[in-house]
């Protein structure tokens, strides 16, 4: 049987791809060297070239200067999310830090430069840890032009217009309340103005500008529960729909009259394009999920980052001129050359109040009965989608005979705003009920063995996994929590200051909802947990501090419950170091094998099910 490492992709990517101004090079962040570094690869094909990187920092956001001779990027240290800005020549020379100073969250705009390349736009909380200011940095003089946000709003710079006059930004209150702000940089006393205030609360996420700066594209749920593609006309102050499917438009780019966008149809990405409003035929692409997209300046091709259950994330070219699809990278691990990976089945199961929960169900080869891992995605405002998940962990578990149920419970994205908002201030409520119904659904399948049931999740998913172990009355065989909150009250109290409004809206205000937060916390029910538990935690995690894992581990060890606790001193919220990631998933795979297969294979009840 192949080992876990045989399923590990050759490299992984951060979700950012940026084409050079001449369309010949793609810049991206990959951890093929062991850390996420800045790389470039020719669109025509050829060997990738490492441009910049650090032993202890992760390259996150990337942009080219207008002349194409340099790149700007952000990087944080050991996952602490205290991003710093750097400039580097495209050949790797002249690496310099921009705006050096105290640690803070410097977030680069998607299109951060004016046409001259002199002005650089980003966001930072250097003035006040609780406020994300818009900053326009003059790279020649070092002068900073700063714009402060209204109370309760977190700014994020998006782009400078092609004529350099306008600064486009978002004002974030929650994942379902994102406004658009516009600043006229030609005015000495400029103030950010909310363009979408008259349109009401909703999601308004601006994207690429029209070449003449007459307006910009955006994604919005203004017309329905689903995210549409639109264009905002500055002169008319009007919003015009481009595409309004009954699914979410997820990424969009435009150039010289051509627009290309991806739609999340039941979890899988579907590409669409038009030229001056008329549809353009596109080549077939493999089924999967597109997480990044960049259209060439002449619109002859697009670069995408595509991930599927059968093949790990790859950079690929969608050639509109030749009507061809081709990969630029090949990250396939050895195991995929000798076995057929398992694709999930999209299923639904009944839940409370007449709702149906969408889920991905992975069935291993063989008749069974198979033990099952209930995998809970993070967020919670996220979505389980058909990708090569967890660096091959899913496929390795499936090859061992372990089935996987991965539901999109209440609070998940992709199924409309109302479904997404069900979890607001109700963590450990309706979501846990949906997970309970998922386990009930497993009991109806003749090829599963619900007496050999484990649960796993990361971040919010870790919280939900702990909640399942503590609050759902099933004979859990094992549980895995990766940076999972155990105490919602202390989590809310320790959240980053810029998240105050978001936390109050989505999780609950710790000053007014303390009793409810404790009542929904896994640590409150820790005495109910008897299954072996594996806890993984980054010591530098700014989102879920180590104290969250410390609390549940201490409570369980006091009672003699079997707990393995791995703390990664050089990680934050998740893994940025490849060696750490591989070590963690290999250990998780062995842990689940031990408790779902090795120690349960001879149990009479396991043999009788199904």
Automatic annotation (TrEMBL):
The keyword Hydrolase applies. Keywords: Hydrolase. Pfam families: Peptidase_S9. The keyword Hydrolase applies. It comes from the Bacteria. Residues 396-596 form the Peptidase S9 prolyl oligopeptidase catalytic domain. PANTHER family: DIPEPTIDYL PEPTIDASE FAMILY MEMBER 6, SERINE PEPTIDASE S9 FAMILY MEMBER. This is S9 family peptidase. It comes from Nonomuraea monospora.
């Amino acid at each position: 049987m192949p080992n876990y490492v045989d399923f590990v992709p050759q490299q992984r990517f951060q979700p950012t791809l940026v084409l050079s101004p001449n369309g010949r090079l793609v810049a991206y962040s990959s951890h093929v060297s062991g850390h996420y570094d800045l790389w470039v690869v020719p669109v025509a094909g050829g060997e990738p070239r490492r441009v910049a990187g650090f032993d202890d920092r992760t390259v996150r956001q990337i942009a080219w200067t207008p002349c194409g001779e340099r790149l700007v990027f952000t990087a944080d240290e050991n996952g602490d999310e205290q991003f710093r800005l750097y400039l580097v020549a495209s050949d790797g020379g002249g690496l310099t830090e921009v705006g050096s100073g105290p640690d803070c969250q410097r977030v680069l705009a998607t299109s951060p430069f004016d046409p001259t390349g002199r002005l650089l736009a980003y966001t930072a909380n250097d003035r006040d840890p609780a406020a994300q200011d818009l900053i326009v940095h003059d790279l020649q003089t070092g002068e900073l032009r700063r714009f402060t946000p209204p109370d309760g709003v977190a700014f994020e710079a998006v782009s400078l217009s092609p004529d350099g006059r306008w600064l486009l930004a978002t004002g974030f209150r929650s994942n379902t309340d994102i406004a658009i702000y516009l600043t006229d940089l030609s005015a000495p006393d400029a103030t950010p103005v909310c363009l979408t205030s008259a349109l009401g609360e909703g999601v308004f996420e601006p994207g690429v500008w029209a070449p003449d700066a007459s307006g910009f594209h955006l994604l919005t749920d203004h017309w329905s529960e689903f995210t549409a593609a639109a264009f905002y006309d500055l002169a008319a102050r009007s919003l015009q729909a481009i595409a309004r499917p009954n699914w979410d438009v997820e990424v969009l780019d435009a150039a010289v009259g051509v627009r290309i966008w991806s739609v999340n149809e039941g979890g899988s990405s579907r590409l669409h394009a038009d030229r001056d409003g008329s549809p353009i035929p596109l080549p077939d692409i493999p089924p999967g999920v597109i997480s990044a997209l960049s259209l060439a300046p002449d619109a002859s091709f697009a670069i995408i980052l595509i991930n599927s259950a059968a093949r790990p994330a790859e950079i690929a070219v969608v050639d509109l001129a030749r009507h061809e699809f081709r990969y630029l990278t090949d990250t396939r691990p050895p195991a995929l050359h000798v076995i057929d990976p398992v694709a999930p089945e999209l299923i639904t199961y009944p839940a409370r109040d007449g709702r149906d929960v969408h889920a991905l169900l992975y069935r291993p080869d063989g008749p069974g009965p198979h033990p099952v891992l209930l995998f809970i995605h993070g967020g919670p405002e996220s979505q389980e989608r058909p990708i090569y998940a967890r660096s091959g962990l899913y496929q390795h578990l499936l090859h061992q005979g372990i089935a996987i149920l991965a539901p999109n419970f209440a609070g998940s994205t992709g199924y409309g705003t109302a479904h997404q908002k069900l979890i607001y201030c109700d963590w450990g409520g309706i979501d846990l009920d949906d997970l309970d119904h998922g386990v009930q659904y497993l009991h109806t399948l003749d090829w599963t063995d619900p007496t050999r049931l484990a649960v796993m999740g990361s971040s919010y998913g870790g919280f939900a996994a702990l909640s399942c172990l503590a609050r759902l009355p099933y004979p859990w065989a094992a549980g895995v929590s990766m940076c999972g909150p155990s105490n919602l009250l202390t989590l809310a109290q320790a959240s980053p200051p810029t998240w105050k409004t978001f936390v109050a809206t989505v999780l609950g205000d710790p000053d007014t909802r303390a009793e409810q937060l404790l009542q929904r916390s896994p640590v409150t029910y820790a005495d109910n947990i008897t299954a072996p538990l594996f806890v993984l935690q980054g010591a530098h995690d700014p989102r879920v501090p180590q104290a969250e894992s410390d609390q549940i581990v201490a409570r369980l060890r006091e009672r003699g419950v079997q707990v393995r606790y791995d703390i990664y001193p050089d990680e934050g919220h998740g893994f940025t170091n490849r060696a750490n990631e591989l070590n963690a998933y290999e250990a998780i795979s062995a842990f689940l094998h031990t408790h779902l297969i090795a120690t349960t294979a001879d149990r009479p009840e396991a043999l009788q099910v199904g």
